[in-house]
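subagent[fold] <- orchestrator: predict structure for attached chain, return tokens only, no commentary.
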Amino acid sequence: MQIIFIVPSISDSHYRNRIVEFIDKGYTVNVYGFERKNSNKKPNLPYNISILGSISDKNYAQRIKLYIKKFRELGKRHNPQKDVFYLCGLDIAMFFHFFNPGFKYIYEECDLTHTYTRLKGVLEYIDLKIIKSSILTILTSEGFVKYHFNGNKPHNVCLVENKLNPKVLDYKVPPRKQFDKNTISIGFVGAPRFDSIYNFIDVYCRTFPQHVFHIFGGPVPTQFETLKKYKNCIFHGFFHNPDDLPEIYSKIDLVLSTYDTKYENVRFAEPNKIYECMYFETPIIVSSHTFLAEKTNRLGIGYDIDAMDDNAIVSLINRVSEKELRRMTDNAYNINKKDLINNNMTLFEKLDSNLKMQ
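subagent[fold] -> orchestrator:
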């Protein structure tokens, strides 16, 4: 038996890490994927991959035609008695399963992509059918379980959160910077792209020139380039994950992780920043009225805010105190670090058990 992955983008780091996990666990894998027309970057992959074609983010009709053609070909090429497909994302799962109903499959959903469309009701119905028919479905946020099933996880669903790469354990964590109320340092770690992140940085840097904002990562959209006018907004460029994370988090007092809550996907997602902030004991700022805010407040490890409200941003910064940050870092310190590291033994135990039942 082999596990056959179909990934939506050959440069997707999330699915790249998942494939490596399967290889490390001794599974025989075969990988198919798509290139993105707007990407010139060719990833250096630790496995062979067969390119099914090139797709555009805008021309969805053309993408569907390509899916139908290539998924029919894959159905003829592989044996439903010996091969199990690993379908990454709703659109791939929907079209592959429709044209190849005889194949067993594992389904992973790391974003509620259908919630961005007008057809989200119909697509949610299809999504639930795909989950029900799978050998195993992997959801990457407890919020997704809440969204789909009101928190009642079905027997064939496995929750696999976006925890830290085990390699982070190989790196020593430098001493944290001493907190100075007169020079607060906030950081964003990742690829900045949401309006709420831009607005927070803009208000923060304009209102508090004595404080500093650090942006670690890229690419930087044109909108964010305008923030370079502020001397207290520092762009550090790309970094290596997890190699550079200890040094990054040692330089900041808080980490910003606000996303645009007008999107349902964002309200239920659980980004890896929540695990990074706990591991490095750095208080986090998240968007209000989200699953992430519920978890942050429950654990007492950060603040929630409407990052599109200028007055709320100013009020938050004015009330940040050493005593409050110490309480939050202490709460993070008391969380078992092993629980924050990616260790998916439960996933593979459940998968092996479900495969034996087929």
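orchestrator: received. Logging for downstream: The chain has 14 helices and 13 strands. Residues 60-77 form the longest helix (18 residues).
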